[in-house]
Specification:
- The chain is α+β, with helices and mostly antiparallel strands.
- Helices cover 50% and strands 15% of the residues.
- It folds into six domains: 207 residues, Hypothetical protein af1432, CATH 1.10.3210; 156 residues, Beta Polymerase, domain 2; 65 residues, Ubiquitin-like (UB roll); 101 residues, no CATH class; 50 residues, no CATH class; 75 residues, ACT domain (Alpha-Beta Plaits, 2-Layer Sandwich).
- The strands form six sheets. Strands 1-2-5-4-3 form a five-stranded mixed beta sheet. The protein has a four-stranded mixed beta sheet with strand order 12-14-13-15, with no helix packed on it.
Length: 736
């Protein structure tokens, strides 16, 4: 592959698979790499051809063709020799008996790490396909955080796979195309690799919706001929005016790609003619000053469309993209989209993060692409640390790959970049995790707004915090950024664990009392034996499992008792167990409910129990315990599984309120709702919700959810409501 020694080796090889690709790769590499590095790449080819020699792709060609094409894609981007070498070897660990250590011995640690970063996890058993894909994605992203070249290799790999997708069966084509459109094309966009993004999107669109793609492609082909005259007229007028003003500029027509047209038609509900009637041009000049001068000249030539100007030079996109965008009223009244940028900005816009290798001689430092990508990768690492599992991490990354952005300001004038639709909570977490965690209110342009309000471009956002404040589970309903979502979930999981540990300790203690066993008196060695039997690492894990309802406490207590009572087990435990085993049997008092236990104790919405009601509790897997009225249908049906039923009672002193539903039958008269609401207010009861059900022309039923302290409080309210004119009857709503 290089002149001299390498060609001698090549000539002596018995079979050269993919010879024409090898020649292409050689020509590309010799343009910018020294001989010794080209030789290293050729050694990788020989190694790959040998281990893949009996493997073929679904298209029928030798497998080595695929890594060679991937290497050629990257060589055209002038990537370093380590990346090209890793591209040729990227499938050897996954698809052959070769291990990472062998690659490290042969080619060095750097190349071995790159190959390992792209390699899927094939040695681990996963419960389902989704979990396997998510875990592989997580592994690749973490490798990317260490070395950005991992994702560049993966994108090139995916690009060639998409180009040859036709060889696969239909369901595989759809699955891979969907994954490409959801993850890899947005990833290329996030890294500023525009050429990759466009081709991945069009290929994904073609595979996922072949009929729509065909119809749209034919429509574009037909319409293209009718546009030539208008395009030439606009192109000529732009070039002529810029030349008159003494500006050296390159003007080129820019046609929207098919997926972009499809998305615009779908999202904005436009017809094809409405989308395709927009004429797009790109003007490339020598300097930033020239960009703004060009903008003024074009606005003087054609009138600009109001509100359609964007300055991505002053405020670059998250992927480092810089350009001026404007829309003009062109000849014949047609809209003309124009992008104005410098040559360096154009290079970054097309190659993104890879421009660092592709244009080493250019001064690309001002683009900020690399810094933005590193900042994003740090955020990915933080998200990974907070995510509970790989599926949650994949979900957070997908959220974070939003293509559209809003730019808002801090009170001190700093620009913050957020995905479109972000709220004050997203902004707060973007500023700092502690600011997000203690956020209680927000001001937008000096006016208080709800925390769920979507932010708009140019707004100034101020976050109001309180040291005692904590993240709210309701925030997950409206936050947009992956960072905010992962931080909130992480906090709630820790909070839930603390609460489940406390509840589990109480529940297991009560259950063990019935067997005259006190778990606190078990010795350290005995405890280790017990936890090993349960396949858990600590006593806290056991409490958490019981508190979350994953292990019924009565069954755990019985298993402990059986182990201690069994002859063999008794001998095994005898030296650890003190005299408490023969202690008097305890009475096992019911568990007291206060209403402030947290997320692991909830109250059934079917019967809405309140203090004073006779209650029982069901142990529900993953949710902890759910309190019901003893007469509730759900509670009665659960008696078939007595191990899930818990004996509970209300605490004497309860300082919180509980929602209860009442049904008020009233005459259809003006003011009845206001009179009823006034009674609730006078009685110190807050109304959570009201719905009205029409029965006939004379009567309606008001279903009211109201907060009360106990049954006596509810009884007083109901007596007062009955005295209201127009109220015929009031009763407690029963859903079960």
């Amino acid at each position: 592959m290089e002149s001299g020694a390498t060609k001698a080796i090549e000539a002596s090889s018995p079979v050269v698979q993919g010879g024409h690709l090898l020649d292409t790769l050689q020509t590309l590499l010799e343009e910018y790499l020294p001989e010794d590095q080209v030789a290293c790449v050729y050694r990788a080819y020989q190694f790959g051809a040998r281990v893949h020699h009996d493997q073929y792709r679904a298209s029928g060609e030798p497998y080595i063709h695929h890594p060679l094409v991937v290497a050629c894609i990257l060589a055209r981007m002038r990537l370093d020799h380590c990346t090209i070498t890793a591209a040729i070897l990227h499938d050897v660990i996954e698809d052959t008996p070769v291990v990472k250590e062998e690659i490290e011995t042969e080619f060095g640690a750097e190349i071995a790490e790159l190959v390992d970063g792209v390699t899927k996890l094939t040695q681990i058993e996963f419960e389902n396909k989704l979990e396997a894909e998510a875990e592989n994605f997580r592994k690749m992203m973490l490798a990317m955080v260490r070395d950005i070249r991992v994702i560049i290799i993966k994108l090139a790999d995916r690009l060639h796979n998409m180009r040859t997708l036709g060889a696969l069966v239909a369901y595989k084509r759809r699955r891979i195309a969907k994954e490409t459109l959801e993850v890899y094309a947005p990833m290329a966009n996030r890294l500023g690799m525009n050429q990759f993004r466009i081709e991945l999107q069009d290929l994904g669109f073609q595979a996922l919706y072949p009929q729509r793609y065909r119809v749209l492609a034919e429509s574009v082909k037909r319409a293209r001929g009718n546009r030539k005259e208008v395009i030439q007229k606009i192109d000529k007028s732009l070039e002529q005016r810029l030349r008159q003003e003494g500006l050296k500029a390159k003007v080129e027509g820019r046609e929207k790609h098919l997926y972009s047209i499809y998305q615009k038609m779908k999202v904005k509900r436009l017809s094809f003619s409405e989308v395709f009637d927009v004429y797009a041009f790109r003007v490339i000049v020598d300097s930033v000053d020239g960009c703004y001068r060009t903008l003024g000249i074009l606005h003087h030539l054609y009138k600009p469309v109001g509100g359609r100007f964007k300055d991505y030079i002053a405020i670059p996109k998250a992927n480092g993209y810089q350009s001026l965008h404007t829309v003009l009223f062109g000849p014949y009244g047609v809209p003309v989209e124009v992008q104005i940028r410098t040559h360096d900005m154009d290079k970054v816009a097309e190659a993104g993060v890879a421009a660092h290798w592709l244009y080493k001689t250019s001064n690309l430092k001002s683009s900020g692409t690399t810094a933005n990508v590193h900042e994003w990768m740090r955020g990915l690492l933080e998200m990974q640390q907070q995510a509970g599992d790989s599926i949650e991490f994949l979900e957070n990354v997908k959220i974070d790959l939003f293509p559209d952005e809003v730019y808002v300001f801090t009170p001190k004038g700093k620009i913050m970049r957020l995905p479109r639709g972000s709220t004050a909570i997203d902004f707060a977490y973007c500023v700092h995790t502690d600011v997000g965690a203690t956020c209680v209110a927000a001001k937008v342009d000096r006016r208080l707004v709800p925390l769920s309000t979507p932010l708009l471009n140019g707004q100034t956002v101020e976050v109001i915090t309180a040291l005692s404040a904590r993240p709210n589970a309701a925030w997950l309903n409206f936050v947009v950024t992956g960072k905010a979502r992962s931080k909130i979930r992480h906090y709630l999981k820790n909070l839930r664990r603390d609460e489940s540990v406390g509840l589990g300790k109480r529940l297991l203690g009560k259950a063990l009392d019935a067997f005259s066993i006190n778990i606190n008196e078990i010795g350290e060695q005995a405890l280790k034996v017990l936890l090993n039997d349960f396949n858990l690492e600590s006593l806290e894990d056991l409490y958490a499992d019981v508190g979350l309802g994953n292990r019924p406490p009565i069954l755990v207590a019985k298993r402990i008792h059986d182990q201690l009572s069994d002859g063999n087990a008794a001998r095994k435990w005898r030296r650890y167990v003190p005299s408490w085993l023969r202690r008097e049997r305890a009475s096992g008092a019911p568990l007291a409910i206060k209403g402030t236990e947290g997320m692991v104790v909830s109250f059934g919405k079917c019967c809405r129990p309140i203090p004073g009601d006779t209650i029982c509790a069901l142990l529900t897997s993953g949710r902890g315990i759910v309190v019901h009225q003893s007469t509730c249908r759900n509670a009665l049906s659960a008696r078939k599984s007595p191990e899930k039923l818990l004996d509970v009672h209300w605490e004497r002193e309860i300082g919180v309120v509980f929602p209860v539903e009442v049904a008020i039958h009233a005459h259809n008269r003006r003011g009845v709702l206001a009179n009823v609401a006034a009674v609730f207010s006078d009685m110190g009861a807050n109304i959570d919700n009201i719905s009205v059900e029409d029965r006939d022309g004379k009567y309606s039923v008001l279903h009211v959810t109201v907060d009360v302290s106990d049954r006596r409080h509810l009884a007083r309210i109901m007596r007062r409501v009955r005295r209201v004119d127009s109220v015929a009857k009031i009763q407690r709503d029963k859903h079960a």
